[in-house]
Fold:
Amino acid sequence: MIQFDQVTKRYPGGNEALKNLSFAIDSGEMVFLAGHSGAGKSTLLKLIAGIERATSGGVLVNGQNLSKLRPSQLPYVRQHIGLVFQDHKILFDRPVFDNVMLPLNIIGFDRRDAAKRVRAALDKVGLLGKEKAMPIHLSGGEQQRLCIARAVVHRPSILLADEPSANLDRAYALDIMELFKSFHQVGVTVLISAHDETLMEDYGRRIIRLREGQFAA
Amino acid sequence: MKHFLYLHALSARQALVKILRQPFGSLLSLLMLSVALALPLVLYLGVESTQTWVGKLTATPQISLFMELSAEDADLAAVKSSLASHPKVKSFSFVGKAEALAGLERRNGLDGLAEGLDSNPLPDAFVVTPATPEPRELEMLQKELSGLPMVESAQFDANWAKRLFGMVELTRHLTLFLGAALGLALVLVTHNTIRMQILAHRDEIEVSKLIGATDSFIRRPFLYHALWQGVLAGLIAWGLTSWLVASANPAVREFARLYNEQLELRPLAPLELLAMIAATGLLAMLGARLAANHHLRQIEPR
Structure:
């Protein structure tokens, strides 16, 4: 499903974020990504989503080598990926419902079924009653859950979450983790990064630990 | 396919709503565009309306042959016969002095003019239609005819019409030039509008790209925004022009009546309107496309 083959990422200016990294994540697996800030977690996720390109090595997602992909093909890879951002990246100019609708419009989902899908996703994250609310009126935790609803509404095969619980208190963070677990249980490949390892250890899943762009011992 | 059409309909509707929701800002740029478009449009209608009329005048050049006031019937008969046998004269008609005076009375509403005059001041005249429209031969014919005995002068009627025709031609060139210049202005103004729109929707564009939106998906609403702007500006320009034509026509008719002519500005024909709207819409989309190509590339998610 996701395969890194001797991947190195060097940013302009010489900073090496990832150094010769190789690993694979199977379809349907749930994996945690741990490490301090600056260890390369975000860069790794960005390479999978095609937001950054590897300086050398191959990044395979759903059998496609992103390093060799033409830019015009990138959108079609991203349509199979759900992204959850630390800063949510919600659009504040439209209500909750329209935010979640956006991915369905992009992939060309039948519009009669789309509203049902949106409500199902909102129900899943516990925001069904707030579909008409403007995002600015949501709490931080609710905004994060809105971001998750948008990431899963088109049922991607891969879900990537970059520090989804970073700004939340522990109870909220656990809620969010449970959400991700439920997606994993229906077959989605889930990759979650966090700098707080105590949240991960309870789940007994594989943890990829990074330090300065390499696997930590 | 159905979804494709749905997306287009959705973008078109949302873009129109967006324009209508900010009536003041949109109206300003729309008005600016439509006034700019109305200018060549009015010129075009002016040229089109006068040119058929002017063309009619110059297409049938005529030479008026005025006889001396003292000319006798024998002199008239002599001129008549030389005209009849001249190879470059296609046809001619005789306008006697009495007939000319009656015509003057009739046309200008000067009834009773003849009674107030001691004698008829008008000369006998021949109206000659030459066999050739070639200007140099016409000139030679005019000289030749003015040399006939007892002929006072031979006047070439089309001279002033030629000058008018030249002016109309000049105005037509001016119209073309203005049309091209303001078409370019339309492209540039839309380019700028869409550039601002793109910068204002930076977040949305970035998020859409992250979610897997293709370039055409992102571009579509902006192209429709431009299309509406072009079409609306064209329609307003049409309205302005129609209003101008309607309000100017009484004056134009009155002016033409002074010269015993019938002339009025015509409104834009349906096909012309259609062509103009299509042109403004396409030019606006061209501007939007250029802006989108340039600025959408700069917005990449980080």
Q: What stands out?
A: Chain A has one domain: 28-41+74-215. Chain A is about 35% helix and 25% strand.
